[in-house]
Each structure stands twice: as C-alpha cells, then as structure tokens.
C-alpha cells in the first residue's frame, strides 16, 4: 500500500517567523497542560543520533533512531509507562547510524506521522525502513524550507532545509540531504542539524534564516566537515550537544571543538543521556 503524504501550508520567513514574543500568549495554553515545558533527551545510543521530545501537550517526537535497537530500551525509559504511540518521527537522512534504530521503532510502536526527504539511497536498512512505512501506511510529511509544523498548540517546528522535500539528484555526500529544523517553545529554541556539513551551514547563513537557539545539536557528531565558526556564532547557543559514541572517524574533531566554547559542550559519550527542560523563557539542563 502506498503511504499517504501530508501537506502543510508554508510560512515563509520573509513574512513570518515572528513567533509570539509576548509570553502571556502561552499562559492559556499551559493552563490546560500538565507541564509547561518540553522534555528533551539526547539518547546515548552510541555512534549515531536519537533525540526524544515530549511536548507540553503530550506529543511524543523522535528525531532519528541511532545505529541499532538500543533506542528501544531508551524509549522505554523516557516515555510514559504503557505509551506505545509516537506522534511524530523525523529521519534526518538515510545513513545507518540514524535510520537503523527507526526500523526497530516502526516494528514495535504506532507512529502517526513520519518526516523524511525523498532522496535516492539504496542501502538494505533504508529500503527496509521504506518498506515498513508503506506496510504500516504511516502518513508521510515531506520537509521543505519555510514549512511550519505545530506539534501541539505551543510547540512548533520550522523547517530550514532542504529547500524541497524531493532531491532530483542525491547529493554527493548524503549527509547534505539532512533535514535542518528549529524547534521552538515561546522564546526558547533547539536547532536540529542531523549530519549537515559546512556547505549546508553556509547556505543557511547566506539565506539569512533565523538560527539563534539555546541548544545546538552539533552537526555530524562534531566532524571536521561541520560546525563552522561563523555558523556557531550566528546560532549563539547556550549548550552545544554532540551525539557521539566510540568510533574510528575521529568524532568529535578538534576543528569542530575549537569552534565551540568548551564549557558549553555536552557529549553523550561522556555524560550518557543528556536531559533538558525547555521552558518558554529559558532552558534547564538536568543532572543525571
């Protein structure tokens, strides 16, 4: 069965993205919610990415799934007991250290909607992922620059890259098909970069897109091909989050680390799961 695709209206940054600066707007929203913050956990799943969010409205969101099934036990720890539904899943790009865990998630959880770009890539793991999406008839959302997705009444996700949801030709480096998005709650933001490299960072800078964020998920596990100094300066993060495990690639690379302020660097290989509460007016790092 061919899965359905969902289309969202586009809100272009030239005329939009004036997200309500008055925090009083959110008071009515939070009055009916059990919490007034987004729970954000960078899951320690080894060399790969898996990021979990739970919105004030109770939506579970998973960005990437890591390289294997360890994401399953992690989800069991962070999701409410008995909750087997994930409202929104994002696959930033089809490399195994991002998609393999999602194959296991799709087998065991009900996923309402899933976002990924259409790009030519034929690994066995990615093909299995596509097969499962089709078999389970999960609604597909294609990313596109300017798209705004409301995860609940208070939490929004703005797509900054790719320009359209379909790559006519796969990038030479498939990492550069990565979805880049900014999650916002009030005046607090998290910039999600997948494995986007410096070419994509430069595109974002040239386009003049809003990048400022309290948390930067550092691109490509801190490789030397990501995290340019000008990009970091524009984002101006309070926390630099590197999802990384034991590897032979030299991640994170010294060049990337030098672009970041050392006291702001948080690494999953050193801290384990990294937990935040994202409030409309501040971000709080939780101790493990």
UniProtKB/TrEMBL annotation:
The keyword Magnesium does not apply. The chain crosses the membrane at residues 12-33. SUPFAM superfamilies: Metallo-hydrolase/oxidoreductase. InterPro entries: ComA-like_MBL, Competence_DNA_uptake, Metallo-B-lactamas, RibonucZ/Hydroxyglut_hydro. SMART domains: Lactamase_B. CDD domains: ComA-like_MBL-fold (cd07731). It comes from the Bacteria. Coiled coil: none annotated. Residues 47-246 form the Metallo-beta-lactamase domain. It holds the Pfam family Lactamase_B. Keywords: Membrane, Transmembrane, Transmembrane helix. This is Metallo-beta-lactamase domain-containing protein.
